[in-house]
Write a structure and sequence with these properties.
The protein contains 7 helices and 10 strands. By secondary structure, the protein is α/β, with parallel strands linked by helices. The strands form 2 sheets. A 6-stranded mixed sheet has the order 6-7-8-3-9-10. Helix 3 crosses helix 4 and helix 3 runs parallel beside helix 5. The chain is globular. The protein starts with a strand and ends with a strand.
Length: 228
């Protein structure tokens, strides 16, 4: 796949704060090319996670538009946006977002089964092996370390063969050494699969590994460094 995979046009997001509106994002525009590695950086409260949610179609902007490929999100129903996310996006979150009642294998299999993928079991086993957890298939999240839980989440994200991987502070709940290991894994798999990576992070060393860095401050895009 080539060309632009994500386009944001004049995105703004306001919420009510008491009697006055609070602007979280203000007139943010950019395009992201297929295969790019892009870090979204900025201080806490600068709008990073809100922006990622808008780009994923998890929330709607107050003004502006988002395109995934050639599809504008604003005109889609909730079901249509969910279907587009399923085809296009994989997610890795700071808090892992694993279901505690399911094993590692079941956590990876579940979204595959919901998507109607026939070889969900084989694919889940393969991806857990790729992230070094082939011997931990039947372990529950509480039986896994934080780094292992994030590896399960990474296997789950990549197993759906997404065009775009969106990661929100994926090392935020990990110690420095484990965080580095998880980041290395994520960048390696992303490179191998040719996926576009969009990464929210407060870690300068991780952001520096991305080819491009979008910096937010006070809800505005104040810097766009690097190449796509």
């Amino acid at each position: 796949m080539s060309g632009t995979v994500i386009r944001a046009s004049r995105l703004s997001k306001e919420v009510r704060s008491g009697d006055a509106p609070l602007k979280i994002l203000d007139d943010v525009s950019f395009e992201i090319a297929s295969g790019a590695t892009v870090a979204i950086v900025g201080a806490s409260g600068s709008g990073k996670t809100t922006l990622l949610g808008l780009l994923a179609g998890l929330d709607r902007p107050t003004t502006g538009e988002v395109w995934l490929g050639d599809t504008a999100l604003n005109g889609l129903s909730e079901d249509a946006r969910a279907a587009l996310r399923q085809r296009w996006l994989g997610f890795v979150f700071q808090s892992f977002q694993l279901l505690p009642a399911l094993t590692a294998l079941e956590n990876v299999m579940l979204p595959l089964e919901l998507a109607g993928i026939a070889d969900a079991l084989a694919r889940a086993k393969d991806w857990l092996s790729r992230v070094g957890l082939g011997a931990r298939l039947t372990h529950y999240p509480k039986q896994l370390s934080g780094g292992e839980q994030q590896r399960v989440a990474i296997a789950r994200a990549f197993s759906g063969e997404p065009k775009v991987l969106m990661a929100d502070e994926p090392t935020g709940n990990l110690d420095a050494t484990t965080g580095t290991d998880v980041a290395n894994l994520m960048f390696r798999l992303n490179s191998e699969r040719g996926t576009t990576l969009l990464l929210v992070t407060h870690e300068p060393t991780i952001a520096s590994r991305c080819g491009r860095r979008l910096a937010l401050s006070g809800g505005r895009l104040v810097s766009d460094e690097g190449t796509a």
